[in-house]
């Protein structure tokens, strides 16, 4: 299991040039389709849990257990507030276990024996999971001299363009150092503003599931 720490930013006409100027190395471009799943009542996402299938692989993003109140200076807190962090679980039996734990009521009177095969999707209907979002992204990725920092520029098929500065931490890794790396990279990219930038899912839900989007906003999940 690892923890993804990331800061999103809005791209502009100069973003590519700036990346070149700061010595970012392009790792290439790839395209992928993401499918996100939840119960019809959105039991997972209302707990800030995001179940996704990308390129045939499953992934569950969950809130980290630390509550974000680690001791920080004012500047550090501001930088941390612009970043999101999620545990990433990619082991399918563990994903199935975590999801079942959350939707116990749904599972109570159902047969929920599950196959751990990545291709066999029968477990989804057994616990009433349906696809609520599907979109394709073209992603260009860059690495920087700063160790372990990756910058992704995403273009979603519904017209949203967003960048992210990302550090992947092993569980128990040094969060403060990851936040500092992201902050330094943001500085090099000339990012100003202290507003959190919307991710692709924000924009997708806003137009495709506006009621759920409003609920997630009111619960401070988005
Ligand atoms: C919406 C959401 C999640 C779903 C995945 O979102 P994101 O990380 O933006 O997608 P993507 O394609 O960049 O994934 P990657 O390739 O990096 O794995 S996971 C958590 N959330 C909630 C959330 C939030 N509340 N605020 C922000 C800024 N982002 C996500």
TrEMBL record:
Pfam families noted in UniProt: CYTH
SMART domains: CYTH
PROSITE patterns, A to Z: CYTH
Source superkingdom: Eukaryota
E.C. number(s) listed in UniProt: 3.6.1.28
Name of the top EC class for this enzyme: hydrolase
Catalytic activity: thiamine triphosphate + H2O = thiamine diphosphate + phosphate + H(+)
Cofactor(s) the record lists: Mg(2+)
Gene Ontology molecular function, alphabetical: magnesium ion binding; thiamine triphosphate phosphatase activity
Keywords: Acetylation, Cytoplasm, Hydrolase, Magnesium, Metal-binding
Database matches in InterPro entries: CYTH-like_dom_sf, CYTH_domain, THTPA, ThTPase_euk
Subcellular localization(s) per the UniProt record: Cytoplasm
A single GO BP: thiamine metabolic process
UniProt similarity note: Belongs to the ThTPase family.
Role summary: Hydrolase highly specific for thiamine triphosphate (ThTP).
This protein's name: Thiamine-triphosphatase
Natural source organism: Cottoperca gobio (Frogmouth)
Gene name, Swiss-Prot/TrEMBL: thtpa
